[in-house]
Design goal:
There is one protein chain. This protein is of the alpha/beta class and 509 residues long. The protein has 2 domains: 226 residues, no CATH class; 163 residues, 3-Layer(aba) Sandwich (Rossmann fold), CATH 3.40.50. Helix content is 44%, strand content 11%. It is built from 16 helices and 13 strands. A hairpin with a 2-residue loop joins β1 and β2.
Length: 509
């Protein structure tokens, strides 16, 4: 056999390898193509392409989204600022265009918005005349008029602490949130706790229509128009932070200790000196002779102020399975903080309501407690709850969800908007600037402010107009649904009272 020289064999080998490699590459390419054709519609690939497409679309949308127009705070003269900036109206006009171009809301307002219709019911046939409004100044702390999106204030009497200040601040933030959206207004506001417009005075055949008075609470025998209280924007005197901030802290407080790990007692901390019913509650405190299942603490605000509010942080008070709500001289701002704690709220039968509490349901959001037999009622609730842990947790979670989802500042502003908008529709005259009023804007309030008051204003200030309109108002109650709401509550309360009575009767035997 002829043997080729070594050099010749080495020269032919790369050619063979090259041909073989080419064939292998073609085969692999064909195989990959075949596999790809079989799996091109697989969920993995589909999701991959979908994700890429969404990311690209999102990126394009972000690039195309118009820049939000920030409404500035112009403290041109620092703490001496006492007039609204000349450019203020121009800024609001630009913001108004932004709002007009915003999308309409697709959110439905929470159910408690339906009570707006009920609160304005007394004027449904007569409308609201200027004479009616001026009659309301008998007890009002201030008159607020808005004309063409600007606010004008006529003060009558300074309110307790900073109630009027932060109520007005809240309304100004509403105007910044929805610039140009609210119609012209003329209203009287009373910052005192107790409602004053007695319905019995206006039920006679020849009686005049009642004066429209705005305040923080009312009861079943009065016609005062309820409005969100000042503490949503902060209560500087006792260091209660603006609601947006505090709500997040309460969420964190709930995470720190699960319900099952909390103290198996009913907790209350507050000022007992403002009402006899609170002093009566203190009789239910634990003692050497009796344990009603309650742990009650009198809050000394003077001492707290001196110590820098070390023992009054509301977010640190979600530590018991049960929390007691009891009214003070009238309704109390503490209700929303108590409901937000994931604990079962033991609600001592109230006389008053604020703007959202009428939609709370016994045994869904709280446990009803007798006002005239508090100790035994609390004892029964605590013992029952410790035996029915899951049911109690469900109620506590429902009340907490109600607050965290339906009582956000977005909905607080929307409630204010709809209430004032519906109120303005009833005015039979066109509001004009009162001769003794001063123009009010965020600058005239925040720029001269100092300390905690200024901090709370800055923390709660609306910086941008809303991207969308207010939530969609639910319809008013029809007579059957209105009766059903009341009947359902009464039945739930009677059911609990029946349980209590049966239990305590058995203890006597």
């Amino acid at each position: 056999m002829l043997t080729l020289p070594l050099k010749s064999r080495n020269m032919k080998t790369p050619t063979g390898i090259k041909i073989t490699s080419t064939l292998v590459f073609i085969f692999i390419l064909f195989f990959v193509g075949y596999i790809y054709s079989l799996h091109i519609d697989s969920p993995i690939l589909r999701n991959s392409f979908s994700t890429t497409s969404k990311n690209t679309k999102s990126l394009i949308q972000r690039k195309e989204s118009p820049k939000r127009l920030e409404i500035p705070l112009n403290c041109l003269n620092g703490n001496l600022t006492n007039t609204c900036p000349i450019s203020y109206s121009g800024t609001l006009i630009s913001s108004t265009k932004t709002v007009e171009n915003s999308l309409p809301s697709t959110k439905t307002c929470p159910d408690y918005f339906r009570w707006i219709h009920e609160d304005l019911w007394p004027w449904r046939n007569t409308g609201i005349t200027k004479e009616m409004v001026m009659r309301a100044n008998r007890t009002a702390n201030f008159r607020l008029v808005t004309v063409n999106g600007k606010a004008y204030l006529e003060m009558y009497e300074k309110a307790f602490q900073t109630r009027d200040t932060f109520t007005l601040w809240g309304i100004l933030q509403l105007l910044r949130r929805y610039p140009g959206k609210l119609p012209d207004l003329d209203l009287m506001f009373d910052c005192v706790d107790w409602p004053v417009v007695s319905s019995s005075e206006y039920k006679q055949p020849n009686a005049t229509a009642p004066p429209p008075v705005f305040r923080y609470c009312a009861d079943d025998s009065t016609l005062d128009i309820v409005f969100p209280d000042w503490s949503f924007w902060g209560w500087p005197e006792i260091n209660i932070k603006p609601w947006d901030t505090l709500l997040e802290e309460l969420k964190e407080g709930n995470r720190k200790k699960k319900w099952i790990e909390r103290e198996p007692y009913a907790y209350w901390k507050g000022n007992p000196e403002v009402a006899e019913t609170r002093k009566d509650l203190l009789k239910c405190n634990v003692s050497d002779k009796q344990d009603w299942g309650a742990r009650l603490y009198a809050q000394d605000w003077g001492h707290e102020i001196q110590k820098g509010f070390q023992q009054s942080n509301l977010a640190d008070q979600c530590t018991h399975r049960y929390k007691i709500y009891i009214e003070g001289s009238a309704w109390s701002v503490s209700e929303k903080y108590i409901l937000a704690c994931d604990s079962l709220t033991l609600l001592v039968k109230p006389l008053y309501y604020d703007f959202f509490t009428r939609s709370l349901e016994p045994m869904k959001h709280y446990w009803p407690v007798k006002v005239d037999d508090k100790c035994r009622s609390i004892k029964f609730a605590v013992d029952w709850g410790n035996r029915h842990k899951q049911k109690v947790q469900d109620i506590g979670k429902a009340s907490s969800d109600f607050v965290h989802k339906n009582l956000t500042m977005d909905f607080v502003y929307d409630y204010m908007f709809h209430l004032l908008n519906e109120y303005a529709k009833l005015l039979t005259y066109r509001p004009t600037i009162p001769p003794n009023s001063v123009e009010l804007c965020s600058e005239t309030m925040a720029c001269p402010a100092n300390g905690v008051e200024k901090n709370f204003m800055m923390a709660s200030m609306v910086k941008y107009p809303s991207d969308s309109g207010p939530c969609i108002m639910p319809p008013p109650f029809d007579p059957p649904s209105f009766r059903s709401v009341r009947s359902k509550k009464e039945q739930s309360v009677r059911k609990v009272e029946m349980w209590e009575n049966k239990f305590w009767s058995s203890q006597i035997k």
